[in-house]
């Protein structure tokens, strides 16, 4: 029993989208958005990563158990980074960026 | 997927099983599902492995943003952008390799895998050029580290001490909040993280190419068909994961603050 076979056109589309988003993230970096430069870059990167996970890594067609495993990884990464911010952000010697303070 | 209770009668070697089906699995689908979940659990540990570095990067970037912005501007956007395109391209060729394995195209699978390895080698080659450039400019942390004045705005440090912290939001060419001596120290932190993160990523690429060499040989020998292509798919998951790490490394290292 073979897995779901995606059409080649889908892979080409995802590839083109990833390339366009790469150009977009470079372009956005040259526009002064103040504190939003970082957020825009991370939102674009997150969207690119989602495309790769969902289509190239076939998670879209995977079982619920696999989807849950992937979500667990992202969840624990969020805990790691989030609690780092809570810890260091509560220290007087850390000047937090405007969007976090 | 199919979680049907095992019907396969225990004497069941009467009808032909797929040769790749191991005895502790009931069906090919169950065997593949186990591999996919297992691979994702491994990738989950990899996410947190890199996550520790991302966390360190995050804290130091908040602390020494100006140093990170300055050091980031010294990286070549051309090489970084090219490598991003090369790696995304290699993800496409990898996806095509898996697809060809799924559809029982042996020669095409081998060819796509070889193309993926070539793109991976191109990425590493560009990385060598970039690393050599860092050595040339004394941007490797350690005794010979030298934050060159060429990257500093002329006399940027003179008013830096006087500049209040809140003034960082001034428009246009803002004053750096760090003196040249502080920059000398704090840009080293950026480059330490740069070499650790890109080095660990490059190590993953080298391992990935090694895995692919084995997979390509297996594909060439005709060990895969539309029923069994799990090793190709697992190598693909690993390769795409390495691609995702770079998707985040590129903006974090190359695009800290380019608009100034």
Question: What is the topological layout?
Answer:
The complex is a heterodimer of chains A (101) and B (260).
Chain A: H1 8-29, H2 36-56, H3 64-89
Helix pairs in contact in A: 1-2
Chain B: H1 28-63, H2 65-73, H3 77-102, H4 106-136, H5 180-220, H6 230-254
Describe the model.
The complex is a heterodimer of chains A (101) and B (260). Chain A has helices at 8-29, 36-56, 64-89. With 101 residues, chain A is mainly alpha-helical. The termini of chain A are far apart. Chain B has one domain (28-146, 175-254): Cytochrome c oxidase, subunit III, four-helix bundle (Four Helix Bundle (Hemerythrin (Met), subunit A), Up-down Bundle), CATH 1.20.120. Chain B is built from 6 helices and no strands. Chain B has helices at residues 28-63, 65-73, 77-102, 106-136, 180-220, 230-254. Classes of the chains: A mainly alpha (101), B mainly alpha (260). The interface between A and B is large, with 53 and 60 residues.
Quaternary form = heterodimer
Instruction: Quote the beta fraction of chain A.
Output: under 5%
Please tell me how large the radius of gyration of chain A is.
18 Å
- CATH-defined architecture of chain B: Up-down Bundle
CATH superfamily of chain B: Cytochrome c oxidase, subunit III, four-helix bundle
End-to-end separation of chain A in angstroms reads 53 Å
Name the helix and strand elements of chain A from N-terminus to C-terminus, one letter apiece: HHH
Q: Which sheet architecture does the biggest sheet of chain B show?
A: none
Briefly note the CATH topology name of chain B. Answer: Four Helix Bundle (Hemerythrin (Met), subunit A)
